[in-house]
Design brief:
By secondary structure, the chain is of the alpha+beta class. The chain has four domains: 80 residues, conserved putative lor/sdh protein from methanococcus maripaludis s2 fold, CATH 2.40.420; 92 residues, Efflux pump adaptor protein, beta barrel domain (Elongation Factor Tu (Ef-tu), domain 3), CATH 2.40.30.170; 60 residues, RNA polymerase II/Efflux pump adaptor protein, barrel-sandwich hybrid domain (OB fold (Dihydrolipoamide Acetyltransferase, E2P), Beta Barrel), CATH 2.40.50.100; 105 residues, Orthogonal Bundle (Helix Hairpins), CATH 1.10.287. It is built from three helices and 21 strands. The longest helix has 52 residues.
């Protein structure tokens, strides 16, 4: 029992001591004043920006696909070079194209052989149907003259054989249509392979900058595989992902500044040229709308997929009252600032307008030259220094 009161006595003393130190701190703070920093309301121009990440793209490009399965013998133009319409970009290996032609020729021969075989099978089946029909008719006549058990069984057998022959003929005729389609397809493939053998050079369909796919000399490309793109150097743009909460502020024609990760020391000017018609989910899981910013500088190397960000100028005002944004605070009643009157902190309600990266427009509540303050633990009427 004694030890219990002894231990609790120590705790009580510690609590009282802690309260005393806290009261002493508050007293000293109250007597010395809260340490503050200050700024003056000024008349300045202010611009509000919407920042959005994105990447470079082009609105005008032609993608070339391989028409055949072949090996690349030579790539005649370096990646990123300017090309003109008709320039030879890739030369395909004629040996691989000759192999494709041989395969197409064999397929065509087989298809025609199958079609011819089906033709003769149909002739034989038609003759068989006629013969089986005659046998059926004769069996019917015998049964009509003598409907004995034997004649009845002969008629049943003859009818079955006739129906089987008719079904086989019908199946052969249905097969004929399928074989004709295969033969026509094989013939088209043969003509295409023959033409490809005479056109081993793949040319640029338009003028622009060449963007090769991941191909190299000696590698095989498949039919339908991408070979290269021709990019219009006058159509470079930046596709930005604007958050859905800010999309209402974006308008066609607004000016923007583009910063690219690959060219960190440069800033590029652009304009909003297109606003997407639907939302998308970004890699971070947020909802955004694609906004296209067209570069004003046409000398930018049109590299597709460069990451970066853009600052879109959504509104601006001239000669308005502004203060640094960190001096504006919010509570349940709205925005307010702290001002200093007779050495004490006074809360003052303000109405804010647009804001930039560093400044906030003050519509009501402050005038030019008035001083606003901030400090840790500011309260109404507390002494400040």
């Amino acid at each position: 029992m004694f030890s219990f009161f002894k231990s609790h006595k120590k705790i009580s003393i510690a609590i009282i001591a802690g309260i005393g130190l806290t009261l002493l701190f508050i007293y000293r703070q109250s007597s010395n004043g809260v340490k503050i920093t200050s700024a003056k309301a000024e008349i300045k121009n202010i611009t509000k920006y919407v920042n959005a990440p994105g990447e470079t793209d082009v609105s005008d490009k032609y993608i070339k696909f391989s028409q055949v399965k072949a090996n690349i013998e030579k790539i005649n133009v370096r990646n990123g070079s300017s090309v003109k319409e008709g320039d030879i970009i890739i030369t395909l290996n004629p040996a691989s194209l000759k192999a494709s032609l041989d395969t197409a020729s064999s397929d065509l021969t087989l298809a025609n052989t199958n079609l011819d075989s089906n033709y003769f099978d149909i002739l034989a089946a038609e003759a068989d149907v006629k013969a089986k029909k005659l046998l059926r008719d004769h069996a019917q006549e015998r049964y009509n003259g003598d409907n004995s058990r034997d004649n009845k069984e002969d008629l049943r057998t003859a009818e079955t054989n006739y129906q089987t022959a008719v079904a086989e003929l019908s199946e052969l005729k249905n097969t004929k249509e399928s074989l004709k389609q295969k033969a026509n397809s094989a013939y088209s493939s043969y003509l295409s392979a023959k033409q490809n053998l005479n056109n081993t050079n793949i040319t640029a369909p338009s003028s622009g900058v060449l963007a090769l796919e991941d191909i190299r000399e000696g590698s095989e490309v498949l039919s339908g595989g991408r070979l290269f793109s021709i990019v219009n150097t006058q159509a470079l743009n930046f596709t930005a992902e604007v958050d859905e909460t800010e999309i209402a502020e974006i308008k066609i024609g607004q000016r923007a500044t583009i910063l690219l990760d690959g060219r960190p020391n440069e800033k590029f000017k652009g304009q909003i040229s297109e606003i997407g018609a639907k939302t998308k989910t970004t890699d971070s899981g947020s909802t955004a709308v694609n906004v296209k910013v067209t570069f004003e500088d046409t000398n930018v190397t049109p590299i597709i997929g460069l990451n970066g960000e853009t600052d879109i100028e959504v509104s601006s005002k001239e000669a308005v009252v502004v203060i640094p944004f960190e001096y504006v605070e919010e509570d349940d009643e709205g925005s307010f600032v702290w001002v200093k009157e007779r050495g004490r902190a006074i809360k003052r309600r303000v109405e804010t307008g647009i804001d930039s990266v560093e400044l906030v427009e003050i519509l009501n509540g402050l005038t030019e030259g008035e001083e606003v303050i901030k400090g840790e633990g500011l309260k109404e009427g507390v002494k400040v220094k």
